[in-house]
Hints:
Shape of chain A: globular
Structural class of chain A: alpha+beta
Largest interface: A-B, 10 and 15 residues
Helix content of chain B: 25-40%
Number of strands of chain B: 13
Shape of chain B: globular
Oligomer: heterodimer
Strand content of chain B: 25-35%
Strand content of chain A: 15-25%
Number of helices of chain B: 5
Helix content of chain A: 25-40%
Order of helices and strands of chain A: HEEEEHHEEEEHHEEH
Largest sheet of chain A: 5 strands, antiparallel
Order of helices and strands of chain B: HEEEEEEEHHEEEEHHEE
Number of helices of chain A: 6
Strand order of the largest sheet of chain A: 8-1-2-9-10
Distance between the termini of chain B: 36 Å
Amino acid sequence: MSGSMYDLSVATYSQEGRIYQVEYATKAVENSETVIGVKCKDGVILGAEKQKFSRLLEDNTNKRIYNIDLQTGMAICGKLPDGRNILQRAKAESSQYQDMYAIPASAHVLSDRVAQYVHAYTMYSGVRPFGSATFIASYNTFDGYELYMIEPSGNKYAYHACTHGKGRAVCKSEFERRNFKDLTCQEALVYIAKMLILAHEEFKEKKYEYEMTWITDNNGRKHQSVPQDLINNAVQQAEQLIEQDQIGE
Amino acid sequence: MNYTDILSSKFEPETTGTTIMAVIYDGGLIIGADSRTSSGQFVADRCADKIDYVHDRIFCLRSGSAADTQTIAKYVRYYIDAHAQELGRLPAVATAANLFRNFLYEYKDSLSAAIIVAGWDPYKGPQIFTLPLGGSVIEQKWSIGGSGSTFIWGFCDSNYKENMTLQEARAFVLHAVAHAMYRDGSSGGIIRLLNVTKDKIEREFIDYKDVPVK
């Protein structure tokens, strides 16, 4: 797809009514490491794969999933520095909202603020759109568990399962097959791991780390990292499941 | 009257030297207020409504400078409206109290305003927040305010009970406000009552002839 003269500035529409710069930003997200968000029966899980591109990297650091507040988490898919800028904004919005209104910001309000911020960067020729999609998972007593994804265009939707990045096609087909609404978060961990492993099938020789966080009825409804031993178990079981599937074929 | 009169000490700002009260009972809360707005010794409004609407189930009782409290209430009403629209459901009473508090605290040197925020929300039920002059916030089961309140502390302390019925709470507020109006020169007129519950708001107007203490 060539943009010819209409892709030089985000302030220019193409003749078909497309904004190529936003689409190119989305491309940046599509070519990056996979991130998944899933709502289960008793909570929400966020999962991200991290390729260890150098043996010099410290394990279990260099996160892609962060806390916005106690009960809200954000996962970044795409360019990490861009995503971290969005994260800082989300943290500020959440903190100021709580300061003013004496209640924590619900996910639908917070994601709206983040979406407006991301969208603002698609309106002016002096800035470039963010090259990251952000996932917001949260719990509050009135709205329950919520999951949103905000794309570089500023589009924001509420999901019960969403994914972006290189392995999104694989993950989406797994979403179709598995009814996560019937699984508890504990049960769903295996399938999250499975999706993240399948997402990078072609690069099996590389080393990967899996980052998972959750907000569930069982962990006090706070956004926290899934304990490392649970992640390791899930990865092991997932690898067995994949082998069995392959043997079955 | 020209501007020199306003600037001179002869001009006294309009105040709600007042009696205001709110009490939580089993199932909701009762708000009561007198109706006198005084400008010095002159009664500027003898039938004022000191119970201000903030949101569908949130009200504020104003004491101190009428100008200050009316303006603050107007801002808070606007902020709460915008907030409730975004939130998509009833705002928390604590939210309204916080918005009032921000004004009273940040502008404490310029304002003369003390407010009682009372209402019902689906998260914590009936709540009362007292916001005195400096901008602090305290949550209470019952609260009295205004110049007339000084005369009824004893009455209220001995007659308040937890988990009163609607009738008991109404009688408590009615008699307390009436006693305050009886002894406080800056309070008087008629009594306005408001019953706030989950399902409805009921306003009551007690005419002078029906005020129990006079």
